[in-house]
Each structure stands twice: as C-alpha cells, then as structure tokens.
C-alpha cells in the first residue's frame, strides 16, 4: 500500500516537473534535496515521512507537506541483511517551506 502511494507521488512529480530543471545551478538556490525512504503518514495523507535509515530502530526522519514537494526522484532500492527492501528517493523541497526534523537522543 505504501509503495503504491510513493509511486503515485513519483508519477505526479514526473508529469508536473521535468527532473532536468533541478540539475542546473539556479535550482540549488531555490530547492534543497533530501534523500531517504518515504513512508505514508499514519494519520494525515497530506504529509510524507522520509526516513534517513529505514532499517534502524532509532532513526531520524523528516516530515514534509506533500504540497511542498517539488519533485521526487527514485534513486534505488536498498536491502538489509534479513532481505527486507525499501525504496530510496530524492525529494526536492522549495527553500522556505516548513518541515519537521525528528532525531532520537538520550536524555542525560
């Protein structure tokens, strides 16, 4: 189910934007890329979660509003030692858009 959600985002991105736009020098002034494994938010379909390491128990992640995503590029599929696989993507987010970054830490 999550895989079809991500595929729809990629298809929407490819129809709406040409990936080549992001390879020129000016794109880096207006957009920032984030790489990870996307997951559908459990409660809000307008938010995408991007895991930096999908196989870690204590992973940091980002939350982006789907509307803030300018483009999605599929990079590859990664696999852990147990044979589980996860899609890895690059998200292009317009600078200045609000987002959430969550990072685990130990309270001392």
Describe this structure as you would to a colleague:
This protein has two helices and six strands, in the order ααββββββ. It is α+β, with helices and mostly antiparallel strands and 108 residues long. It has one domain. The chain has a six-stranded antiparallel beta sheet with strand order 4-5-1-2-3-6.
- Strand tally: 6
Distance between the termini: 39 Å
| Cα Rg | 14 Å
**Could you say which overall geometry the principal axes of the C-alpha atoms support?**
globular
Task: Determine the oligomeric state from the structure.
Answer: single chain
Number of domains: 1
Low-confidence blocks of residues: 17-21
Portion in strands: 35-45%
Given helix and strand content, the structural type is: alpha+beta
Q: Please give the order of strands in the largest beta sheet.
A: 4-5-1-2-3-6
Question: Which percent bin holds the helix content?
Answer: 10-25%
Q: Please give the count of helices.
A: 2
H-E order: HHEEEEEE
The residue-averaged pLDDT reads: 83
The main pleated sheet reads as: 6 strands, antiparallel
List keywords for this structure.
single chain; 108 residues; alpha+beta; six-stranded antiparallel β-sheet
What is this structure's SSE topology?
Blueprint lengths: L1 H15 L10 H4 E10 L6 E5 L9 E5 L3 E11 L5 E10 L4 E4 L6
Antiparallel strand pairs: 1-2, 1-5, 2-3, 3-6, 4-5
């Amino acid at each position: 189910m999550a895989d079809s959600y991500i595929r729809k985002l990629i298809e929407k991105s490819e129809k709406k934007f040409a990936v080549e736009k992001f390879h020129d020098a000016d794109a880096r002034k207006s957009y920032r890329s984030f790489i990870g494994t996307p997951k559908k938010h459990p409660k809000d379909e307008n938010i995408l979660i991007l895991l930096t390491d999908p196989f870690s128990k204590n992973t940091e992640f980002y939350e982006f509003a789907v509307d803030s995503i300018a483009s999605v590029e599929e990079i590859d599929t990664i696999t852990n030692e147990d044979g589980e696989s996860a899609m890895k993507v690059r998200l292009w987010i317009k600078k200045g858009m609000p987002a959430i970054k969550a990072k685990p830490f130990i309270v001392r």
